[in-house]
Amino acid sequence: MIDTIRISHILPFHPESEMDESVFTRTRGSFGRRSYIYNSDEGVHFTWSELPFSDKARLSVEASLPKFLFGNNIDELNAETTETALQRLGEYVGDVTGVEFETSSAVVNRADFCRNFQLGDETKVRDWNNAVRDRFIPRFDTKPYNWNAVYFSSSAKTNPRQICCYSKLDDIRREMQI
After folding, report:
1. Which residue among 60, 92, 113 closes a domain?
2. 62-114 confidence digits (pLDDT tens)
3. C-alpha angle 140/146/152, rounded to 5°?
4. What pLDDT is recorded for position 8?
5. For the chain, how many structural domains are there in total?
6. Which long-range contacts (CB under 8 A, 24 or more apart) does 96-101 make?
7. Contacts within 8 Å (CB) and 24+ apart, 33-41
8. Segment 18-73, tens digit of pLDDT
């Protein structure tokens, strides 16, 4: 299933007077270009960056589609719910920015895919992660993170990849501060 995506559109840059300072925070973009960011309560991250030698800007939007649609990333998306999440994300971006944001024609800059495996209780998750930690995947570096997560990262300069194995229950507890 698709989890986190980053999509973008090239759009006319809002005049500074139209940027809602209560929503967007101005940052210094690369080479002094104007850039605005906003992290919404819904978990959507916006970056609106001025393009060089142009009156246009790139509006990038990053979000976990299951978290945006369901409020968590335990429930997995299917084709129908993915389409619904993308449509609602486009509407939400339009509401926040005041510009039309068609997700169906946006450039995909990043897409994370995931799969949930029901292992049962927490000791099985730890045992599974300990077993995975000792495995070797060609062209990947293994990076254990505490006892509950293992990252496999490719060292490729182009098209890098990462595989992460972790406990969703621990992730939710951390978010809810339980």
Report:
1. 113
2. 999 999 999 887 888 999 999 999 999 999 999 888 889 999 999 999 998 88
3. 10
4. 96
5. 2
6. 96/23, 96/38, 96/40, 96/44, 96/46, 97/14, 97/46, 97/48, 97/59, 98/14, 98/18, 99/11, 99/14, 99/59, 101/9, 101/59, 101/61
7. 38/96, 40/96
8. 666 656 777 766 666 778 888 888 899 998 888 888 888 899 999 999 999 998 87
Specify the 3-state DSSP secondary structure of 105. Answer: helix
> Are residue 79 and residue 44 in the same domain, yes or no?
yes
The token pair at 89 is: 């994300």
User: Looking at the structure, do residues 73 and 20 belong to the same domain, yes or no?
Assistant: yes
Q: State whether 18 and 88 are in the same domain.
A: yes
Comparing CA positions, the residue from 89, 47, 83, 37 lying closest to residue 68 is 89
CA–CA distance, 97 with 38 (Å, rounded to integer)? 10
Nearest to 145 by CA among 162, 164, 127: 164
Residue where a domain terminates, one of 113, 137, 165: 113
Domain shared by 98 and 159, yes or no? no
Residues 59 and 139 occupy one common structural domain:
no
Give the rounded distance of the alpha carbon of 133 from its chain centre: 25
Percent of the chain with pLDDT over 90: 28
Domain range for 163 is 122-176
- 101 with 132, same domain: the answer is no
